[in-house]
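Note to self: keep these together.
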Amino acid sequence: MARCCSRRKKVTEKTGNPKGLEKWPSAGSTTLTSDIDVNLKGERTEVAVEVFNELFKQGFPGGHSWDYEAGVVYDVNVYAVDFMHSFGGAETGEFVERFRQDEASYADENSPITDQVAVKRTVKEGKRSGQERGGISDREFGKLDQENQSEAALVKVRLYMTGNQWEAYKSSMRLPPEQQNLWQNVEQRYADYLNTMTNKIKKNAEVDLNSANQAEMTGMQVLKERAAQAAGESGDEHIDAAKQEQLIIGSSNRIYEEKLKEVALTRVELKTLIATYNDLAKPEANSTQKTLQDQEEKLISR
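Structure:
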């Protein structure tokens, strides 16, 4: 508890916000072999993640310092507050195509592989005056958001497939010609992720990192092989394994921390824009409908 309070104090010092870090509940499985995911709550949890990772390695206050991330030592990972406040949401009256999850639909070439699913929007994040729900109200921006979410999910799928498995998976999906650019977008994002992780891994390495025969390796196997090249060999397999895991988890944590800084800035912009939008929506503001539309376009384009 003392360490948690120290982290809260550190976040307050960095942000000037006493509500920057308020809670730190864990989520997910409670089995003894499961990792521990800590979901931070507060107004500046994007900063709190980096503070936690820094203080853990320092052993602050008065604890044991570590050369490794908390995810390596105790399998503990911390996450900033996200946009998924609750499941469900408000229906928009729109429908989108979603791929079916049952294998039978893909086994029969004449069977449809998609269904029409009702679109729902969050009722909290981004909520503003005159709107029954938060989220994105513009149809085109909503469609773009759904495409981004699908591509991000498929990158995770690709990460745990070999090159050969991925090609087979793409063929089995039978996408229509107008949606074939999905695969190109996913593969570009996947390549960008591998390159970003590789650059982080080899930051302090004096060897070139490469992976042969990627057609028969998953994305994670590629990263593990590159981490092994960067870590070198000590003669102790346990130390080598820890160093390799440290390179992967440490690199992933640094990328996450960098992205969170971008998210923090975006959230400040959104908060300011929503406040302005709400002021303009007040009857006494005597604002025109065009002004409101312009303000909403700025909001949803962030």
